[in-house]
Write a structure and sequence with these properties.
By secondary structure, the protein is an all-alpha fold. The chain contains ten helices and no strands. It is globular. Helices cover 79% and strands 0% of the residues. The longest helix is centred in the middle third of the chain and has 30 residues.
């Protein structure tokens, strides 16, 4: 199994997952007020490592300076990093399964993605991935709709600039701005839909016990 083919398969797994999200949450992608929100959480966070060396440098630096950031900001950035790490591991594992199944390089449909997802398994890691994703969604909502949200972002931006983790902070800020566009009622509706459909997908394919 060549590294080049494996990397192509990993990229296809990522793209297929994004297509699945658009199938499952199409109404939110197509609404003007929620499009930025779902694109941020279903694509940009999921695809964090695509920024390569810049992201990796920021992650390495974050480990050294995280205790200098406000606790809430620190935890949210850590959640984004954790989500990216576990997702990257899952994608690499699924890519290997896809290649072993005789993948020829074509785009795969959600049905085949789900077959690969089931074959790869790793149920405990999937649970962690989903829990962190939901926690990240909830934090962005709390930050965006609290009186302290805007106040906290100023000092955090300065600290992030000083300690060279702006690329991570900008992800957090983008999530904050995207969430601000959505009413609390609509956000909760979206969050409940994600919880319902993603747990259903996980349990339906990997079992509940």
């Amino acid at each position: 199994m060549s590294d080049t083919l494996l990397e192509k398969a990993r990229l296809e797994i990522m793209q297929a997952q994004t297509r699945r999200f658009k199938e499952f949450y199409g109404e939110y992608f197509n609404r003007e007020d929620s499009a930025d929100l779902v694109n941020f959480f279903m694509d940009k966070i999921y695809n964090l490592d695509s920024q390569g060396d810049i992201i990796q440098t920021a992650i390495n630096t974050f480990g050294k300076i995280k205790n200098k950031l406000p606790a809430e900001i620190k935890q949210s950035i850590q959640d984004v990093i954790d989500l990216n790490d576990v997702t990257h591991q899952m994608d690499e594992g699924m890519a290997a399964v896809l290649v072993e199944r005789g993948w020829t390089g074509d785009a795969i449909e959600t049905k085949e993605l789900t077959e690969v997802y089931k074959q790869y398994g790793h149920r405990a890691e999937r649970i962690k991935q989903l829990e962190v994703m939901i926690d990240t969604l909830e934090f962005s909502h709390q930050l965006a709709h609290s009186a302290l949200g805007k106040v906290m972002l100023g000092p955090a931006r300065l600290a992030a600039r000083l300690f060279r983790v702006m690329v991570l902070f900008e992800f957090l800020e983008e999530g904050y701005l995207a969430t601000r566009k959505v009413s609390a009622e609509d956000f909760n509706d979206f969050l409940h839909k994600v919880e319902e459909k993603e747990w259903e997908y996980l349990y339906g394919n990997l079992g509940k016990v």
